[in-house]
Amino acid sequence: NHWGDCPICCLPLPLDTTTSTIQTCCSKEICDGCFHANYMREWVERLKNKCPFCRQLASSTKKEADRKTMKRIEVNDPVALRQCGFRRYSEGDYKGAFEYWTKAAKLGDAGAHYELSHSYKEEKGGVEKDEKLELYHLEEAAIGGHPTARYNLGCHEWNNGNTERAVKHWIIAASLGFDDSLESLKDCYKEGCIQKEDFAAALRAHKAAVDATKSPQREEAEAKW
After folding, report:
1. Distance (Å, whole) CA 168 – CA 222
2. Three-class SS of residue 174?
3. pLDDT tens for residues 122-132?
4. Helices marked H in 77-162 — which ranges?
5. CB contact burial 147-182 (16+ within 10 A = b; e otherwise)
6. Cα(120)–Cα(219) distance, rounded to whole angstroms?
7. CA 20 – CA 14 distance, rounded (Å)
8. Within 10 Å of residue 97's Cβ, how many Cβ atoms?
9. pTM score, two decimals?
10. What is the pLDDT of residue 207?
């Protein structure tokens, strides 16, 4: 999927963003398993808290964290740009969010493309509703491995009567571990819109994608936190 792998354990990151943390110092997304293991090592050895990836000292204040984020933005880090867009959006600054997401999308960030598709759908950020641009950014996000974007493209095709295209989108999203796509495929199977073999293959692919994100270290972190 578009999140990629944890840069430390090299396992695919889960789609659930609450199980990983983006570091403001280097913009790397660290899974909870590696984050917890690093925390426990520092606690046992009485070390100062550092980023598990780049080893910079952890920020002690919001001001310091913001300064690190701005340093990443200054070098056109797409992750930092996307995250700053989220912050602007949460503050009600939709235009500012749109500008940051546009910059990140130009750098190929799938998550930013997805957020821009919503901006054109909801008419936020100073832009008018534009279905053509909404679909363009959905397609770019889907190409970048964004499962929700791929699922939404399937819904768009379904609503327009393009059943075969919808099913293809949902199969791809399911293979990325996206649960909603699997539910849609179940409904398609009940209605005879997908062959038994194709549905079985989608089930296996979905399970494989989910299983690939699991590890004893991540399970330990989930139990602790």
Report:
1. 34
2. helix
3. 988 888 999 99
4. 78-90, 94-106, 110-122, 131-143, 147-159
5. bbbbbbbbebbbeeeeeeebbbbbbbbbbbbbebbb
6. 39
7. 8
8. 24
9. 0.93
10. 98
